Amino acid sequence: MADNIDFGKTASDYAQHREGFPRTLLSRLQSYAIGLSGQSILDIGTGTGTLARQFALQGSRVSALDVASELIEQAKLLDRLVGAEVDYHLGNAEALPFADCSMDVISAGQCWHWFNAELVARECHRVLKPGGALVICHFDWLPIVGNMVELTESLILKHNSNWSMGGGSGLYPRWLSDLSTEGFQHLETFSFDLDVPYSHERWCGRIRASAGISASLSPLQVHNFDKEHQATLASRFPDEPLQIPHRVWSLIARKTWS
């Protein structure tokens, strides 16, 4: 993770306002034999456990790992609310504390860009069983000319000129090279789009929880951004809920049998 980014500072907003991966993604992954009952799954960069929890509720045996203890604590609270059982570990994805050939599936939701890809891909290959799957998932807002996302991204840049994650398409072809270089095969991708409804309050909370705001700015800077963001929403996009376009993208790769 980048040195100046600390998602631990976003833990409360992250848990309350960041939309989790949609159920449609989990259904599609099951068609690839991912997320099945009884499978051993490791979710790396788990954050508040949005993927781990859904896998657990489907009957998988789930372990999850993150570098931020604050996010893990929020994940445990959310798990208790729905009766999910996940075994959490505080640690670094570049040095996984799991045995060789011990997992059927490793998932990475909304986090691959924070890793040293070479080291993490190598570690995932080590920990997966032969025939096991590594799945990388993203769930990204889409900036479209004139929409709320484009305006929000311009405000983030106004308050944090170091932010470099705007203007995305929600597609990540580079990740395919990351995995094929480390011996993964049978790579497949899929994507689909959907609108996610957000109230003004939740959208503001969602943006505070992003890398460009609470994870990298001071409390005063966050306050100043949030004040302007709320005022902009009220004046430019007063109707609620906001319909925020998102793209779900997933890459699935296999560790082949020796």
Automatic annotation (TrEMBL):
Family recorded in the similarity comment: Belongs to the methyltransferase superfamily.
Protein name, per record: Class I SAM-dependent methyltransferase
Enzyme class: transferase
Protein keywords: Methyltransferase, Transferase
EC number annotated for this UniProt entry: 2.1.1.-
Pfam families the UniProt entry points to: Methyltransf_11
InterPro entries: Diverse_substrate_MTase (IPR051052), Methyltransf_11 (IPR013216), SAM-dependent_MTases_sf (IPR029063)
Matching SUPFAM superfamilies: S-adenosyl-L-methionine-dependent methyltransferases
One Gene Ontology MF term: methyltransferase activity
Source organism, top-level taxon: Bacteria
Gene3D superfamilies named among the record's database cross-references: Vaccinia Virus protein VP39 (3.40.50.150)
Keyword field contains ATP-binding: no
One Gene Ontology biological process: methylation
Domain spans labelled Methyltransferase type: 42-136
